[in-house]
Amino acid sequence: MRSDKEEGKAALLREEIVQLQEEVHLLRQMKDMLSKDLEETQGGCSANLLSTTELRVQLVDKEQELDRAKESLQAMKADRKRLKAEKSDLVSQMQQLYATLESREEQLREFIRNYDQHRKESEDAVKVLAKEKDVLEREKWDLRRQTKESTEQANILRSQMDMKENRIKELEAELTM
């Protein structure tokens, strides 16, 4: 936006310089004509001399205006060069920033890929462990059931053995009688 304003100002200054140069050219032509008239009429020159003096003053004023316009134009050119250099620096910084962003984006993608892979591996490991746990739980319950059945059978056998021992003692008692 600045460059558009500055270019607009530069264009206006160029137009003004062209106009001033045309005025200076016209004034110089008028001065030359008046100088010729003055040379031809060497008499009664006070009125002509005054108008020539006025023309010279105007000419000096216009030349000063032209010099100021040239200085302004030079300053604008220097600003334009400075702005171009700043623009070049900004473009370079933007390119570096884009390169950094692309690098970081690639790093982030790689991290996400690795994270997904590790997560999947972890999930698979958890599934395997869950299956192993289920198998061990089933085995534990089977062992408990078997233990319970074995205990019940042992109790039955013990009671049968106790009954047989009692019977043997009865038979021994009868025998001893």
TrEMBL record:
Family annotation (Pfam families): Kazrin (PF25986)
Alphabetical UniProt keywords: Coiled coil
Statement: the UniProt record of this protein carries the keyword Transit peptide: no
Entry-linked InterPro entries: Kazrin, Kazrin_N
Lineage: Eukaryota, Metazoa, Chordata, Craniata, Vertebrata
Coiled-coil regions listed in the entry: 3-174
UniProt-listed PANTHER family: KAZRIN ISOFORM X1, KAZRIN-RELATED
Protein name: Kazrin N-terminal domain-containing protein
Domain Kazrin N-terminal: 3-177
